[in-house]
Amino acid sequence: MDMKENRRMSIELKRHYLMQVVDCYPKSNRKEKAEIINQFSLVTGMHRKAVIRLIRQSVLARQGKAPCLRLMKRRGRKKQFHDEELVKHLRKLWINCNQLCSKRMQSSFDDWFQWYECPDQVKEKLRLISPSTIDRILKPYRAQYRRKKRSGTKPGSLLKTLIPIKLLDRSIERPGYIQADTVAHCGGSLLGTHIWSLTFTDEFTGWTEIRGIWGKGSLGVLDAIKDIEIDLPFEMVAFNSDNGSEFLNDHLYRYFADKAQQRMGFKLSRSRPNKKNDNAKVEQKNWTHVRQLFGYERFDRAMLVPIMNDVYRDFCRLQNYYMPQMKLISKERVGSKIKRKYDTPKTPFKRLMESGYLNEEMKAKIQKIKDETNPFHLSKQIEEKLEFFYKILKKDAEEESA
Question: For 148-165, how does the pLDDT look when each residue is reduced to its tens digit (9 = 90+)?
Fold first, then answer.
């Protein structure tokens, strides 16, 4: 019998089995007792020492030499958060929260509860629940994703001497320091023209905006950058990218050079070649905001770009206003392990509002957007748009194969 099936044996069945064992155990010799203990351990999945204690105390209780034993009693304090209704609502929230980790999810409850309909007693329990308890409850439902990472970065060498490498020891204390990167939707082959995603992430707040672009031409990337700048609720004061040719080209260099003349202090920089951790924040968003949303399939139809951008706008709004993020405060090597310390999870919206670098007009504008955004409706809307996107993709694939 499989050990997992053993652990699923009901308490009533274990109790009945124990009563049968207690009848024959005192009359058995040493060898027979060992076999009884081994068999009980194998069938129930209990540790052998626990079985010995259980049988001995049960025999003494039957003989009147010990108090009556409450069989199979669970040790520790009584479970508070495992009723079916609470688990049902917690799972529903977790799915709508895009499967957040327990710490970020627990800190997002106040924002999501404004729009979530459930009994007040369930909400109160959910507010009291700890991240570790959330992990235990959701463990059977957690999805596992294992996907290969690919890179489509081609080095741009023309402007490397003009664009300085970003200083790694600088401290960011205000919004506007942007990390940028592109993600290839090539399906494993970079041959031909296909869609790319351009990701913008603010280092201080984690605010992220993404646009899909057809190909990786410099003019297309420049147009996407201008479009993203319109939607950013803060002024861009620095721009850092990798060494790809989509960023290190004359068009973007002239654009940012003009920006530097208009705004004193604007900085254009690049990361070190083959050092992805220099742009760690945007690399992280490439996974959580792009790959987990669109995967690794090949998108080689230009007509899909507007639909993809519509999905990205809704998805980024959900992430920026309702999905808390944790920032790394420090890390310390302890022996062979690295101990990391994070701050309290906060949404990019909250970090931006607390930064002190927004004027009252912009604060009112983004607060109005948040107040009018129902995260549950937005999540459902994103799923419907993704379904429509893949429906068109599948239809095109069938027509091509026909």
Answer: 444 455 545 545 555 666
